[in-house]
Design goal:
Layout lengths: L1 E5 L5 E7 L2 H4 L5 H15 L58 H17 L3 E4 L9 H10 L7 E5 L4 H7 L5 E5 L5 H6 L2 E5 H11 L1
Parallel strand pairs: 1-3, 3-6, 4-5, 4-6
Antiparallel strand pairs: 1-2
């Protein structure tokens, strides 16, 4: 599979790059993509939620009303879940939501996500670029050149690029990522993905 290389002005350079069909041209597996996204979102959860149970509340244990004859429910002491300010029955407790996925499953999920984006023509290859200093205006000019300003865009680099990161961080729905850190969630979330030429090699080394 070949893709045209563009410059940051949105113009074709006349060059093409060869992409690995084993990464960018497979039949997308929706189930493994679902599992990978589910795992990513589960890992983001803090799991620090907690509500007090009956034994953890301070308050008298005196029985407020007799057991029968009141016409109401049996409710015991003031910590009863039936009363306002009382305990909660089977409330949430701190827990770890993360779960394990096999390495091959996660690799297949990323390949499936990239292949689905290729099918949707949502991936473009651009020349490597850098800014002399952080300039949000320059980043906006690049987005305008490709007519994607306002979309959810992601620029992928092989190495950290501080000036580009600082230039993009004030632009809503625009992210800068490293090729080695790409996740299935990041790929699927972006409406347009710009792969720099140097980012193609580390992606192929990781997934190839």
């Amino acid at each position: 599979m070949e893709l045209t290389v563009y410059n940051i002005k949105g113009e074709s350079t006349g060059r093409k790059v060869q992409l690995n069909d084993d990464i960018y041209a497979i039949e997308p597996n929706e189930h493994v993509m679902y599992l990978a996204v589910r795992q990513y979102l589960a890992d983001q959860r803090q799991g620090t939620h907690k509500s007090k149970e009956r034994s953890e509340l301070s308050g008298s244990t005196r029985k407020l009303f007799r057991q029968k004859g009141t016409g109401g429910a049996r409710r015991g002491d003031i910590n009863s879940p039936l009363l306002r300010g009382g305990a909660r029955v089977f409330g949430p407790k701190p827990r770890d939501y993360s779960f394990k996925l096999n390495k091959k499953v996660k690799e297949l999920a990323r390949k499936s996500a990239l292949s689905s984006k290729i099918t949707d023509e949502a991936i473009m290859v651009i020349e490597d670029f850098n800014f002399e200093a952080p300039k949000t205006k320059q980043m906006i000019q690049i987005l305008d050149a490709f007519k994607v300003n306002g979309n959810r865009n992601m620029f992928v680099f092989a190495e950290p690029n501080k000036n580009v990161v600082l230039s993009a961080r004030n632009i809503q729905r625009t992210e800068v990522a490293l090729a080695r850190n790409l996740s299935t969630y990041d790929i699927l979330k972006a409406k347009k993905i710009f792969l720099t030429e140097s980012a193609l090699k580390p992606i192929e080394e990781i997934l190839g």
